[in-house]
UniProtKB/TrEMBL annotation:
Matching Pfam families: FlgI
Function: Assembles around the rod to form the L-ring and probably protects the motor/basal body from shearing forces during rotation.
Keywords from the named record: Bacterial flagellum, Cell projection, Cilium, Flagellum, Signal
Gene Ontology cellular component terms for the protein in this record: bacterial-type flagellum basal body, distal rod, P ring; outer membrane-bounded periplasmic space
GN (gene name): flgI
Localization, UniProt: Bacterial flagellum basal body
InterPro entries per the UniProt record, alphabetical: Flag_FlgI (IPR001782)
Family that this chain belongs to: Belongs to the FlgI family.
Major subcellular site: other
Keyword Hydrolase: no
Protein name per its UniProtKB record: Flagellar P-ring protein
Quaternary structure, from the entry: The basal body constitutes a major portion of the flagellar organelle and consists of four rings (L,P,S, and M) mounted on a central rod.
Amino acid sequence: MCNRLIALIVICLYCMHVNCPAVCAKSSVRIKDIAQIEGVRSNHLFGYGLVFGLDGTGDSGSSDFTVQSIASMLRRMGITIPASSITVDNVAAVMVTAELPAFAKEGTKIDVIVSSIGDCESLFGGTLLMTPLQGVDGNIYAVAQGPVSLGGFAFGAGGASAVKNVPTTATIPNGAMVEKEVPSTMVRHQTLRISLREPDFTTMKRMTDAINNTFMDTATSIDAATVSVAIPREYIMEEKVVDFIAQVETIELETDSPAKIIINERTGTIVAGSNVRITTVAVSHGNLNVVIKNNPVISQPNPFAEGDTVVTTDDELEVKEENNPLVVVEDGVTIGEVTRALNALGATPRDLIAIFQAMKRAGAINAELIIM
């Protein structure tokens, strides 16, 4: 049996190694997929507001800020009423958040997220009152208002309840209107700066060479994340900077990244990059299973005998250990090939996690092992 398992895993590794060479051809990607132009970015907005029209699922009287907000709102409308006489079970205090995209103009509509900050039970059926949304600088850039939309519900009656998703968070599609534009500065001194989303010296060198091959001597690498691109004079003179940026974004190149293995022990998830390589190592992994069974044994007296029926237990102990062979993994085999071969033998994700951790500790995996 052991010899058959060894032969199976060796055949699997050999076939996979032949069919999938160690150096696989990488596909090209566009610059716009891996980098962004400095100065072109979104901005976070937030605001405090009230959601009205709830069916008794709003904040309770213990939420003082909700009562004070209603009293202040009515006072601005010319209505003075004691805060103690305000009932808030159909009103909920919420925080409204949104993301203002780059180049958003006045009148552009954006989505908002509404989240309860009190003891509201559900925002179902509510309407957000006009809420100013401000940026980190304190200036108001948008105003939100409209009926909220939930992705769940919460109902209850007679001690029974049913809840789906989170009913205290809702969205308002196109619920905010931009009132003030955020200036974006892309070009400084006739130069663009492009930043990689994942800094890497090799990828930066390839991106710089690809730009220079299309626009002669315009790109200069600053560091592992940023390249400076001088806009050709003809594009400046003809006011075609947007055309130049569009051409730069579509330039293709091959990316590179360090070898990593990401392991999440809580979920049994393993993600490994294609650059991970294995040096020669011997692997054996076995489990010890202990099974204890309690079998009831009934002792019953003979007919007409003065005795009682007695129930006892007969304990049975079974110890089972898997007899897994010691497998030699050859030098140059990829992590994908090892995983597929071990899976073919019935290894579970948690078995693979233990194996990879041991291989890394033995120095057989040439990659960074990240455990979440």
